[in-house]
């Protein structure tokens, strides 16, 4: 059967349209092929993956030492040579192209240098960060050379080898401690900032955009140091905390606790913290030590001492000369009965990805694995982390009684 003129025209039109569609697709494909190399690497990069198990790692101590720094437990460690050079060699997987080393120190070496195929590619800095990430480009062999001083061993808790352009969120890349603080959280031990202060840190840092400096008087060991860093990082804290070096031991009396730490030494330490970071608001422990712990009681007393004394030139002349004096606007103590306020840690916030400050704190506390058997947060937490009291003020008493920064002038 012969086609009509109209049918023939429709057929030709369809063929032409199909041809145009094919040509368009070919042009788009050619455009992508030519512009692909011009795209930023970051736009195509995928999250790095942990390839530690695919590496060959050589260090003093053999297989036991290797297991200790790759078991993700932080409790088991590798100890380097005191006062001498120590080396860890790593053979990267065959197809390794880029990534990095994530080092979780218990005690950092004085210095370290990373070599790749015998070429120096990175050196330590003076940050003092216990967890640090070092980028690596290209494959081959790595050699981490560390130098310890005469009085301290190098201690490495965990080592991760990651392959890929973008480190995963759990890899910590710390920023320096804030030069000045809006809020200083002063506690005796790692995990106290969560158990007793609740959602304070994520709320004021992320929701209220305040500069929060978290200060610990003690840190018992490398495991608890890693736990505190993991907890803070999980809540979105990116500026490094202050970790004191006073030994952790509950003494039977306040006097013995002061004698154990050195009363003048610990008083000067806290006064120097206040003068150096110049917080507008300081919060600390219950005067009764939460459950009577002498370190908590002393920490609370030190906060009161610093509130009254850090503004006097005659107190700790050394830090006066270096940092000047400073007067804190407000001091809050946990569970303080005078001028009480109640904080809201249970309201979700968009800036916390829809979570509540308390839920973030509870999740962070779970990363303090060594303490989970002794304490817990949540429904059965007997320490109400929402209750505080105004123990000192230079800007008047609270009226609303729901904000540490009430009456504190904005910058």
Fold topology:
Layout: H1 5-35, H2 41-44, E1 49-50, E2 56-58, H3 62-68, E3 78-79, E4 85-91, E5 98-107, E6 111-116, E7 119-123, E8 131-137, E9 141-147, E10 155-163, E11 183-187, H4 192-195, H5 200-207, E12 212-218, H6 222-234, E13 242-246, H7 254-261, H8 263-277, E14 281-284, H9 289-292, H10 294-309, H11 317-323, E15 330-334, E16 340-342, H12 357-366, E17 387-393
Parallel strand pairs: 11-12, 11-14, 12-13, 14-15
Antiparallel strand pairs: 1-10, 2-4, 3-10, 4-9, 5-8, 5-10, 6-7, 6-9, 15-17, 16-17
Description:
This protein has 411 residues and is of the alpha+beta class. It folds into 2 domains: 49-163, Galactose-binding domain-like (Jelly Rolls, Sandwich), CATH 2.60.120.260; 183-393, LmbE-like (Rossmann fold), CATH 3.40.50.10320. Helices cover 31% and strands 23% of the residues. The chain is built from 12 helices and 17 strands. Helix 6 (222-234) runs antiparallel to helix 12, helix 8 crosses helix 10 and helix 8 (263-277) runs parallel beside helix 11. It starts with a helix and ends in an 18-residue tail after the last strand. The relative contact order is 0.11.
């Amino acid at each position: 059967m012969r086609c009509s003129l109209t049918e023939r025209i429709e057929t030709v039109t369809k063929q032409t349209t199909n041809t145009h569609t094919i040509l368009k697709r070919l042009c788009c494909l050619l455009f992508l092929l030519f512009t692909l190399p011009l795209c930023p690497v970051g736009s195509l990069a995928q999250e790095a993956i942990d390839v530690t198990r695919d590496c060959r790692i050589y260090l003093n101590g053999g297989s036991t030492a290797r297991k200790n720094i790759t078991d993700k437990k932080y409790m088991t460690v590798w100890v380097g040579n005191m006062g001498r050079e120590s080396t860890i060699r790593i053979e990267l997987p065959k197809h390794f192209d880029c990534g990095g080393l994530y080092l979780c120190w218990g005690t950092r070496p004085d210095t370290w240098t990373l070599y790749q195929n015998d070429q120096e590619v990175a050196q330590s800095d003076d940050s003092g960060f216990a967890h640090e990430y070092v980028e690596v480009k290209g494959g081959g062999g790595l050699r981490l050379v560390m130098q310890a001083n005469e009085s301290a061993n190098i201690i490495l808790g965990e080592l991760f080898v990651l392959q890929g352009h973008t480190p995963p969120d759990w890899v910590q890349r710390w920023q320096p401690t804030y030069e000045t603080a809006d809020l200083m959280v002063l506690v005796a031990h790692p995990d106290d900032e969560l158990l007793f202060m609740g959602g304070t840190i994520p709320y004021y840092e992320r929701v209220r955009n305040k500069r929060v400096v978290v200060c610990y008087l003690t840190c018992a060991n490398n495991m608890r140091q890693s736990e505190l860093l993991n907890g803070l990082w999980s809540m979105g804290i990116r500026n490094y905390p202050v970790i004191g070096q006073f030994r952790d031991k509950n003494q039977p009396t306040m006097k013995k606790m002061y004698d154990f730490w050195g009363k003048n030494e610990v008083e000067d330490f806290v006064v120097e913290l206040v003068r150096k970071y110049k917080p507008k608001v300081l919060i600390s422990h219950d005067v009764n030590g939460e459950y009577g712990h002498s370190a908590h009681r002393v920490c609370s007393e030190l906060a009161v001492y610093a509130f009254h004394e850090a503004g006097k030139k005659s107190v700790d002349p050394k830090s006066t000369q270096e940092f000047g004096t400073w007067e804190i606007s407000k001091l809050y103590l946990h569970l303080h009965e005078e001028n009480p306020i109640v904080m809201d840690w249970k309201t979700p916030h968009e800036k916390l990805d829809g979570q509540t400050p308390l839920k973030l704190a509870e999740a962070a506390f779970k990363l303090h694995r060594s303490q989970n058997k002794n304490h817990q947060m949540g429904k059965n937490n007997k320490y109400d982390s929402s209750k505080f009291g105004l123990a000192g003020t230079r800007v008047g008493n609270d009226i609303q009684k729901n904000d540490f920064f009430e009456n504190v002038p904005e910058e």
